Amino acid sequence: MIKAMVFLLITILAMGPARADIELNPLRQVLTNTTRVATFTLSNPSARIIDGRVTWVDLSATQTGYAPANAQTRAGLSAAPYLTLTPAQFRLEPGARIEVTVRLKDGVRPPPGERRSHLLVETSAARTLIRKANAGLQADIAVGVSVPVLLRGRGRGAAALSEIKLLRDTEGMLLISSAIVPSGAHSTYGRLTATFLSAESGAKPEFLGVRDNVAGYPDAPHRLVEIPFGFFSLGAGELTLRYEGGGEYSGRVFDERTFTIAPPK
User: Does 78 have pLDDT greater than 60?
Assistant: First the structure.
């Protein structure tokens, strides 16, 4: 049997740690003129030795995720020119971990507003056997994971909920969709929650769903977020959607909207 060799580059540009060959935590870091140093923990949960490198990548925020930033956007967006990053390369034994340190350069003050670059960790390819229809496909797989690093000067973060819609997924189950609309110089961060208070006497609010790690970025006028409910209908009552702050915004409510739900016909 002839084994085909392919090279797959998997880049995970998401709000969470990689779960295969590398794990990177926390999900984000914020630097200011007073908080000039931040650290990430990079760990190897796999059974192999991992070699890799740590670099920067600049990504523009979109309605649903990120896209590579063009040269013009990078000029006003990138935080990398203000920061140092160590180590640039690493080797991790199985089960080992290291700290990746980001520092604001000596003598540098953050410019007004907010800049953002993504810390990108890339590992070298590892040969992995992929099985398909009783045949083996030998693959060299490289894994990458990125998380945002925010550099903040003067300004504040604010956002509102907009374009709220009660929809159905492909299986007919209810979900709620909303746009996060930022209005401040700084990005916002937190979670979106949906609760329901039935019109029945003595009813207590019912938790319908949550989306964690929800960010609203000034370079994305609208950030679309959906919360699936996992059921087909609601009774009469009030549906409340709330954008709650997390991290440095813990305890703050950016916006809250309540809607009356009519009884089903």
Answer: yes
